[in-house]
Amino acid sequence: MRAELGASVPKGRRSFELEIVDRATGKDLCRSSVEPTQSVYPASTIKTLIAVAALRLVDRGRLTLGSRIRIDQPEAFAADECREREGDPSCAVFGPGKTVTLDMLLADMIAISNNLAADQLIDVVGKDFIGRTARELGVPSLRVVRKVYNNVDPEPDSRVHNAADAAGLAELFRRVVSTRDDALSQSSRAYLIGLLRRQYYHDYFDKDFPPGAVYFHKDGYTSHVVADSGFYLLGSNRAAILVGLADYTRRDPRLEPSAWKSDEDSVISAFVRIGRGTYALTQDGARR
Q: Which CATH superfamily is domain 44-160 in?
């Protein structure tokens, strides 16, 4: 698989990994990667870690999915930050001072990548606990050190950045998809997998998946990063975990950022090609 993956992975700062795992045992059956430990800005793929941390608090009885949470983010006044659904700027649900449930925050953070929901969850769960969760699950390369945003920065004085690599995200998903893993309770595992299935965006790895094929995933996008991370099932007992992070902007320190060259279209095409190719390859292997 490495040859097929390596032939399609875009150039530049990137990190990709494909794993086949036994869901019952969590055992890694096969793995292929390109720079799996290269740290890349994760965009919204880091939200899966935030969700896992929040659900671990649910499992410990410190929160419930029905817990009521007041929206108090400084960027809540901005329509493009507090939208309820894609294209709906009314802020009917996530406006300043509104009260929502933990379930609503998790659903919107994962399914439509609502940044305001993510930022509220970062405050509810705490950056320290999110970091501790990453360490306890063996994925210290996944780091949430600041909030996320579209246009209104909630932490304008912060100069640090969230980080991830493909190896860390793949390990996180291995622990989510493995039915006997203790990262989450069975109910929280099923709940999170259900949220990942509801993902609104299908522009990268699974864009050319066959009709009916389900990629349980969280993707991400910024002006310089394309990212996708998740898994699809291979029969009842195995899963293919596919993760990719690519920072595609060629930075020239002599120029203003607006003049940096971007390879966005070619990188997105590479993600689609990798997804199509690896899906076909793993399905062929599963039938043998």
A: DD-peptidase/beta-lactamase superfamily (3.40.710.10)
Contacts of 288 (CB under 8 A, 6+ apart): none
Report d(CA 107, CA 95) in Å as an integer: 16
CA 122 to each of CA 115, 146, 162, 181, 271: distance values in angstroms, whole numbers, following the listed order: 10, 9, 12, 24, 29
Which residue shows structure tokens 């990994």? Answer: 17
- The span from the first CA to the last CA of the chain, in angstroms, equals 15
Strand partners, 221: 226
φ and ψ at residue 17, rounded to 5 degrees? -150, 140
| Residues paired with 22 in a beta bridge | 238
Strand pairing report for 238-247 and 225-234: antiparallel
Say yes or no: domain 1-42+164-288 is CATH 3.40.710.10. Answer: yes
Contacts 24+ apart (CB under 8 A), 23-26: 23/177, 23/178, 23/179, 23/237, 23/238, 23/239, 24/178, 24/179, 24/180, 24/237, 25/178, 25/180, 26/174, 26/175, 26/178, 26/180, 26/181
d(CA 215, CA 205): 8
Q: Are 29 and 22 spatial neighbours (Cβ–Cβ below 8 Å)? A: yes
The pTM of this model reads 0.92
> Strand, coil or helix: what is 127?
helix
pLDDT tens-digit map of 18-76:
999 999 999 999 999 999 999 999 999 999 999 999 999 999 999 999 999 999 998 88
